[in-house]
Amino acid sequence: MEIEISSCEHLMYVSEIQQEMYDSAQRRGTGIAKRSIEYLTKKISDGNAVVATENDEWVGFCYIETWSHGQFVANSGLIVSPNYRNRGVATLIKNKVFQLSREKYPNAKIFGLTTGLAVMKINSDLGYKPVIYSELTQDEEFWSGCKNCVNYEILMKKERKNCLCTAMLFVPENNNKVNGTEIQQSEIDEYNGEKESNLSV
Prior knowledge:
Keywords: Transferase. This protein is of the alpha+beta class.
């Protein structure tokens, strides 16, 4: 399996990725903001995403968004193909996109909103901490992305102070090292070692 910073060669997967994002959100009844083909195409073409592939099939995807004039970064749209779930792929992708975010925006705070315990664990390992919503970007465009979520009415009733999602934030000055780099490399090495031994991940 290859986990790469996106380029134009990955555009062949954009329709499948968009469809799986939509299907996954429908199954969960919450989550990922709907993104157009054009939006995802630009993210991929500009190298602001991470794509995992194996045997010419897409395996997983995540992209970078910036808010509040680059003060905040979100690693959004994390999705893994149903055929490759429960193999540690999401962790590898999150580590890679986190590293890319730190390289491109070293002074930005990195945040996420999630209802998934697995994602919370990954974020925690990377140095994110749970926070209240007021510590996140207040960019109206970001919050408008929640309109596609079934819980949007709850968010608005609570005056955007909280909802069913847990907010998590990585603050660069509170972290002496980018532990995501170490985690990513060790997990990739472990994955490659197991692959060579024909063991399942």
